Every structure is written in structure tokens, then in C-alpha cells.
Amino acid sequence: MEYPIGEFSKLTGLGIHTLRYYEQEGLIAPERNSSNRRCYSDKDLTWIEFIKRLKDTGMPIKEIKHYAELRATGDPTLSERMEMLVQHRQALDEQIAQLQEHKIKLDEKIEFYRNEIERVNNTNL
Amino acid sequence: MEYPIGEFSKLTGLGIHTLRYYEQEGLIAPERNSSNRRCYSDKDLTWIEFIKRLKDTGMPIKEIKHYAELRATGDPTLSERMEMLVQHRQALDEQIAQLQEHKIKLDEKIEFYRNEIERVNNTNL
DNA sequence: TCTTGACATAGAGTTTACTCTACATTGTAT
DNA sequence: ATACAATGTAGAGTAAACTCTATGTCAAGA
User: CB pairs below 8 Å between A and B: how many?
Assistant: First the structure.
């Protein structure tokens, strides 16, 4: 299947302007029809979903662009791309670990508040 | 103990400019000495550490500012502050869950690459 | 044929969170 | 007394990632 940009926008949840911006930044290169309109494919859809994943895990656009370039080059870049993903997984692990630590501290703080509120209530009896 | 901004910057890892910016944005209000220099206290240090935690877990400056205002008001705002933290913990839980899902998919992708690289190697024998 | 809606490009504007510059003041060591 | 390093304010500049505006094209329905 092929989709014009409006439909692809709905499929991806990404806003027409954002899709054009991504193309300009070299993240994606949809086909064009005879009237120069963008024709996004199902492959583009899979690819955009992966881009979103990279973004949501904190990879900056420039780095995704680099990955996209390697991808466009094909097989000779397979190991370099894998290397990037392995690095990124490492970063993601650390990110998750840090958030979990933050969560523990946040829970403690909430517990502290619970006690404070209790204490203040009792003081005002 | 009290610290001038340069020292406090080192203690917090936050850059002098950033500390002044945070003050301007209403996140922190250090004392001033007779010559108008900022005198950060240990309480400020604890508070900044908490600000960093909120920031690192994705809370925007504006919301932290709101929390800071409630904090400055004192006891009457205890439950509202706790409410904010409970909400934020919820968001954090979701954030962590999402990252964990992303990690699983990323691992799958890496596994896919491992197989692809193997396949390409064998094809070129 | 005329209008309308989706699409095209180029470039300007926005938001967030800093980060830096210019210039004045002050405390301290020589 | 003077030099200098740290600090002060006000305001400009930066980077990332969008987001919007102006203007033009084009295919399809009334």
C-alpha cells in the first residue's frame, strides 16, 4: 500500500509538518508520484516506527540521520549499524536504571509527605 | 555551611549561569550577604538535588517552579505538593514501562542484525 | 469552467532550557 | 594603592525539534 502524506500522518501520529521536517533532515525519503506528491509505503511505516523508538529513547535527530544514511547504503554497513544499536542499548539500560533510582527516592519523598501531613493534622487538634 | 555561587556550582555540578537562571525562574532563592552576593546553604543544596531529580525525570521548569512556590508557602500546601508528586510518580512509572518495552524491541532488532550479518557472511563464502 | 482541498516549497517563528557577553562592583593578595 | 579573581545584572545568543505562514500547483467534484 501507498499513502499520501495526510494519511501517513494519521497512521504515524506524526503531523504533516514533522514528516516533511524529517525528510528534510534526511531521516526518511518517500517515493514521489508523477505530480511530485510523496508516496509513503508500508516499509516507510515500519521505518518511521523504528525512528520513533530511537527518538523516544533519547537518540538525537542527527544520530538517527546517521543511522538512516548507513541504512540507505545497505549491507556493507550492517555491522556499523548494529554497533550503534548496541551502544544505544547500553545507554538505554543506564537511563532505565537511573529512572528506577529516581523512583525510589520519589517514593521516599512521598512517604515523608504522608507523615508530615499526618503530623500537621495531629498538631492542629 | 554557606557557599558562594562558584563553590555551590561545583557542589551541584550546575554551572553558575544555570544557577542564576534557576533563581530567575523562581526555582531557588538563596540568601544574600551584605554585598549582595548569593549565600547558598545546605538546605539549598538538598533542594537543588531534588530539583535535579524532578528535572531528570522529565518535569518541566515551569512545573518545578510551581512546586517551589507551594514549598515557599509552607505547611498549608503540603497535600497539594504531595498530590503533585503522586501524579509525577505515576508519569514516571509509565515512562519506565515504556522504556522497558523499547528495550525489548531494541534487543530484538539487535538479534535480527546478528543474524543478518551472519547470513551475509555465509552468502559471500 | 470554477472552486475546493490536499499537497508542494521556502523560509520564518516558537518553545525549552540553557549559555554566553558586556560591563559594573567588590574582596583579597601584593 | 592596585591588580585581579569572583561576583553582580541585563540582555543577547544558541541548540534542538518542531510548527507555522505565505504562496503556488494540481486533480476532482459541482
Answer: 84
Residue A97 near chain B (CB below 8 Å):
no
Measured distance CA(B118)–CA(B110) in Å, rounded: 12
Render pLDDT for A62-121 as a digit per residue (tens, 0 to 9).
999 999 999 999 999 999 999 999 999 999 999 999 999 999 999 999 999 999 999 999
Taking only the tens place, the pLDDT of each residue in A36-64 is 999 999 999 999 999 999 999 999 999 99
- Per-residue burial over B98-117, b if 16 or more Cβ lie within 10 Å, else e, is ebeebbeebeebbeebeeee
For an interface test with B, the pick among A59, A83, A84, A95 (most B C-beta atoms closer than 10 Å) comes out as A95
Q: Give CA B2 to chain center in angstroms.
A: 23
